[in-house]
Amino acid sequence: MRHGTAALTAACLLVATVDPARAGSFGIAPLRVDFDESHKSDVVQIRNTSDQELSLQVEAMTWRQAEDGEDRYENTEQLVAVPPIFTLPPGETQLVRVGTVASPALDHERAYRLYLTEILPAKHSGGTRLRLRVGIPVFVAPILPASPGLEFVSTDRLDDRLRVTLNNPGNSHVRVKQLTIVPETENAPEQSNAAQYVLAGAQRSFFLEIPVDYAVGRIIAATDSLGVREFVVRPQ
């Protein structure tokens, strides 16, 4: 099943994962790919929306979330994309066929990222030119019914930021669309609108810049599949 069609319209960034809705010189459709036991391949359309020729490299990586709540990626042969390298004239579209080689797991979802990285021309020299790198989520559903979950783990301070860690005890991902921090006092709530995935059986860290004296009372997570979940934060 496909999810979304959008152009990437913001300024180019140095090689780094960027939000597909904010990138700059090419469009991607869909912005996420889902596979299951009966659906093991799909097509991703890449359109050059710039006024210059664009060369891209496509890489497939496994995606996991470590105990520290950060994303980790490794090269994989379980996900294939053809062609792996291509060049697009302005306004043209390239079809990239994506397929999963590994069979679905019985009781847990497999998660990958399909990265598209701009290749700078060999003749490029001098000045500063930024390269785009965009990651598309790819999920392979388990054979057993998907059952995501979301639990509150902890909050702690890292310099001037508050780190909120959530855990997903389920067997498939959950996408947190918005995270709202509600204070114990009369301070205004703080929100993070950057959508993030919490993978199956993993935990994810969310960072918000809030004052040092901000006492967190509740955390409200708006999700794509579980509705709104609210957690009470006990004083530490």
List keywords for this structure.
mainly beta, Immunoglobulin-like, five-stranded antiparallel sheet, single chain, 236 residues, disordered N terminus
Compact summary:
This protein is an all-beta fold and about 240 residues long.
Outline the structure in words:
By secondary structure, the chain is mainly β. The chain has 2 domains: 135 residues, Immunoglobulin-like (Sandwich); 82 residues, Sandwich (Immunoglobulin-like). It has no helices and 20 strands.
Q: How are the secondary structure elements laid out?
A:
Blueprint: E1 6-7, E2 17-18, E3 26-29, E4 33-35, E5 41-48, E6 54-65, E7 71-75, E8 79-82, E9 85-88, E10 93-100, E11 110-118, E12 133-140, E13 151-158, E14 161-168, E15 174-183, E16 190-192, E17 196-198, E18 202-209, E19 216-223, E20 228-232
